[in-house]
């Protein structure tokens, strides 16, 4: 399976993703699924410039991203999928895309967000999306960098 990891990180591409995760996964492609980013030409350009040389970055809205992630899942070429929110991960699963693990590595604090683990906070909608994903058979782990010990979402969901 070409799908190496599905990760939620509201910063999308940044140093940890480029320097640590991409290398650890051996991924040769980054697929971003996020409606806001897909519609913002300036943001798209910034993200594409942030990616390491030779690693294609594809940015889709939910509809296009669902089909692209389905294709990537069936292809042997290793890919890394980035999402801004667990709600998008839930939409992918509801569309029939199977992934056994969702890595949540960065969801910042803000109004209406509950601290969950280290620098990870979540809104009520995001918490419910993670609960639903687990009910659907996707394990949700909280892990900021690859060499951190994963913390299971169920253990901190109170």
Describe the structure.
The protein is α/β, with parallel strands linked by helices and 158 residues long. The strands form two sheets. A seven-stranded mixed beta sheet has the order 3-2-4-1-5-8-9, sandwiched between helices. The protein has a two-stranded antiparallel ribbon with strand order 6-7. The radius of gyration is 14 Å and the shape is globular. The chain has helices at residues 15-25, 35-39, 41-50, 62-74, 86-94, 124-135, 153-156; strands spanning 3-9, 29-33, 57-60, 79-83, 101-106, 114-117, 120-122, 139-142, 151-152. The chain is built from seven helices and nine strands, in the order βαβααβαβαβββαββα. It is 41% helix and 25% strand. Helix 5 packs parallel to helix 6. A hairpin with an 8-residue loop joins strand 8 and strand 9. It has one domain (3-156): Phosphotransferase system, sorbose subfamily IIB component (Fructose Permease, 3-Layer(aba) Sandwich). The protein starts with a strand and ends with a helix. The mean pLDDT is 92.
Descriptive terms for the model:
single chain; alpha/beta; globular; 158 residues; 7 helices; Fructose Permease; two-stranded antiparallel ribbon; seven-stranded mixed beta sheet; 41% helix; 9 strands
What is Rg?
A: 14 Å
Instruction: Tell me, rounded to a whole number, the average pLDDT.
Output: 92
CATH superfamily grouping: Phosphotransferase system, sorbose subfamily IIB component
Shape: globular
Distance between the termini: 34 Å
Amount of helix? 40-55%
Instruction: Quickly give the structural class.
Output: alpha/beta
Runs in which pLDDT lies below 50 for 5 or more consecutive residues are none
Number of domains: 1
Number of H/I helices? 7
Give me the CATH architecture, please. Answer: 3-Layer(aba) Sandwich
In CATH, what is the class? Alpha Beta
CATH topology: Fructose Permease
